Amino acid sequence: MPRANPNLLVQSLRGASQVFFMENAATGLLFFVAMAYASSLTGNWATPIGGALGVLVATLTARLLDCDAPSVSSGLYGFNGILVGAALPTFIASSPQLWAAIVIGAAASTVVTAAFSATLTDKWGIPGSTGPFVLTGWLMVAAAYSFGRLQVTGDAPRLAADLVRGSAGIPGPADLVAIFFRNIAQVYLLGSAVSGAIILAGILIASVPAGIAAAAGSLVSLVVALAMGADPSAVSQGLYGFSPVLTAMAVGVIFLTPSPRVAVYAGLATVTTVFVQGALDALVAPAGIPSFTAPYVLTMYLFIAPKRLMAPHPHAPVADHMVGEGTPARPASPAR
Amino acid sequence: MPRANPNLLVQSLRGASQVFFMENAATGLLFFVAMAYASSLTGNWATPIGGALGVLVATLTARLLDCDAPSVSSGLYGFNGILVGAALPTFIASSPQLWAAIVIGAAASTVVTAAFSATLTDKWGIPGSTGPFVLTGWLMVAAAYSFGRLQVTGDAPRLAADLVRGSAGIPGPADLVAIFFRNIAQVYLLGSAVSGAIILAGILIASVPAGIAAAAGSLVSLVVALAMGADPSAVSQGLYGFSPVLTAMAVGVIFLTPSPRVAVYAGLATVTTVFVQGALDALVAPAGIPSFTAPYVLTMYLFIAPKRLMAPHPHAPVADHMVGEGTPARPASPAR
Amino acid sequence: MPRANPNLLVQSLRGASQVFFMENAATGLLFFVAMAYASSLTGNWATPIGGALGVLVATLTARLLDCDAPSVSSGLYGFNGILVGAALPTFIASSPQLWAAIVIGAAASTVVTAAFSATLTDKWGIPGSTGPFVLTGWLMVAAAYSFGRLQVTGDAPRLAADLVRGSAGIPGPADLVAIFFRNIAQVYLLGSAVSGAIILAGILIASVPAGIAAAAGSLVSLVVALAMGADPSAVSQGLYGFSPVLTAMAVGVIFLTPSPRVAVYAGLATVTTVFVQGALDALVAPAGIPSFTAPYVLTMYLFIAPKRLMAPHPHAPVADHMVGEGTPARPASPAR
């Protein structure tokens, strides 16, 4: 683990790298290069500027709140903020109020990160990961529908039955390669295959196994999305791949110790994430909000939560109930 | 408790019986008979075949993941899988992708069951019950709206105000008897009163009190649904009764030790479940997904969670807050 | 703390006062005066009568369930019931079934309060506050869409894009003063500024700091709602202020020990609540249910959850996983 470093810039670059579970300022710098490259194509620089503002505000907020210093130094209080900052300009038109929303959202993301740490992580052993970004991002985008000074630019709310679906042919080889990289780029909400290649390079300089898992996740998601007949436009933009990429990395390499058994488990998790992506796209459609990385977050929580020798509650009385007699249940497992 | 049995078939039949909280292979066999009887009427055999596939895959997955052996043997890792397998063909048209979805959903239901066990059960003392089925089933059906190779066959998404409601007369005696049994059959997504009678017989051979609670739950739900003016078609199909049947069994007999006091408490829980059924039908309408057993699951979690001598947090400072002074709160109860 | 008092009337009046975190029967009496004043203007007395019925039923249910006696005596089992009783007639037309729904909802709110206490509070250190009211109220109003004998009178379900938004001028001084008080009155679902003034007086006789926090929350929410261009009609009715008022009190004075640092933290929480209000209004629109105090509840939970020296999970293996090797993660913080 790199040495704790009080420099806000280094902490923020590490925060950028933590989006892909790395703790490496050079990797974070490459991620900003990837964002800048995509902006140079579109002429819209709001994503890297919003991301930079978000990670700075989130990291500074963590310092002001006296959050655990090694965690702040590692960038663990910054990666949700960078995603809030990158995501809001993607879905809300520019205005002074947008930039105020980014500052408030990034500061709030630090509190949400601390809340997830104190509950989900500390009590249930589940990493919060980008859950705080998903929650904060959903609230800020949904709020824009209520606020005249925040204009939502993305998809309008609609019923799930109106979703586009596909069952057409398989894209050509060049398209497949581009999708492979866009699946990685879209974690940062970027539509550029080159940006995805830069990001993958950034991961590989920090961890080769993590890079391999990311690539495997991208491939698996592509096969499953095509086999199930997902919306070809969404598949082509990489929107069916970014959550599975994160799941493959998180379950296969980061939060479990790699082994053949873990690889199979991570494979099931990655395939499941593609279904959860399709599901959440439909479930959030009436609300008009993007699913963000929620498919990864939900799947990862479910696959990381199980503990060894765990037994479901038997269909027998629970202990110590307010109303019942409180006969103790049969012990959950012989080993406990 | 029956002796642990390594036979996959026996474990799977016990899994079928655990849908109604029993651990009895003969009961499970009767439940398959009930499914087969309903299929013989409609000519559609996807429900029993899907159920059989689901419970086998879920149980096998639990064995491969080295889940707690006595729990696997008791069928506690199979009952969510059988429901996933029975439910998906009810709401998604047959295709090779449907059967792939059943396999993936059933395997995932085992992971979700382990996740619920490690958190909700182990940390909060609440049985997971069919919660993993509800979550997995919702995700798989919602995903079908995004996938061209999975066609949803049931109700289309709509706004809550479009729900049908009734306030007409009371059904005749023969209809009431049929609804009484359909309320039980619909736990297995079956519309046949005879299937409901077979299932009730299966419960009674395993536990007379459980059978009485099921019957009482069916009766109470019928009275409340008619009194509130629920959609007569839904009431007639048994759709207002299957969750209250499970609540009456779970709260009245299974998870609390039966007593007059517990019976009153279970009565309130059963009545509440009818309201929650109406509520969830409206809340999931925009997403176009069925409510499954969610009304039972939510109500049961809320009624089983309370512990003896529990006190709400007083309106006084919380302990050890990141920002506050951390003055300890008044002890929650004198007895702790 | 006032002495435990077995009198149901005093317990119920304290329950009324606990809606604003007070434990003072005189304050509770003033709150009923505020409700009665608003009813004298509209001629509709369902709110105070429903509130009285709700708090009596909820408190009696807690006594019958042998809930923690000091908590019952303090009114902590009554304040969710009074809100259920006051809210249901606001959104559902009068009928015998409405009054049955209030009795069932108020009784259920006591069970939900005990469930939140046993989980959220006891395990995660988060006060349940009005979360049980929000959950119970949502379920009862949503159920009305399914029940012919319960007619929803408020807004119909719609998609988020149809929400009214404003960016017009700033209201005049007299309007601003009226909104300032309505922001407080709407916690009790009252639209009268005079009722808000009576409620503020009731808070001040119990706690001057709490009254100051309520006033500050009202002011901050008004500035933010106008700056973001929220629906002018909703702002004028006080609908953008009542949750921030509760957040300012809860985070600034009640659950954290007041200090300049806590005041800044409560300020961020209050601003965040205005965004969450806009967000939840949009998110619940398709379901046709009101957001109730959910914006306060969600924000307060997130801002009260963080504990001192808490660290997010590092991006390293979790301990003791069912499938992984279970290498222990780096300790979450040096101090633990």
TrEMBL record, chains A, B, C:
The chain crosses the membrane at residues 20-39, 45-65, 72-92, 98-118, 130-148, 197-227, 239-256, 263-280, 286-304. Gene3D superfamilies: Ammonium transporter AmtB like domains. It holds the Pfam family UT. The keyword Membrane applies. It is a multi-pass membrane protein. It comes from the Bacteria. This is Urea transporter. It comes from Methylorubrum aminovorans. The lineage of its organism: Bacteria, Pseudomonadati, Pseudomonadota, Alphaproteobacteria, Hyphomicrobiales.
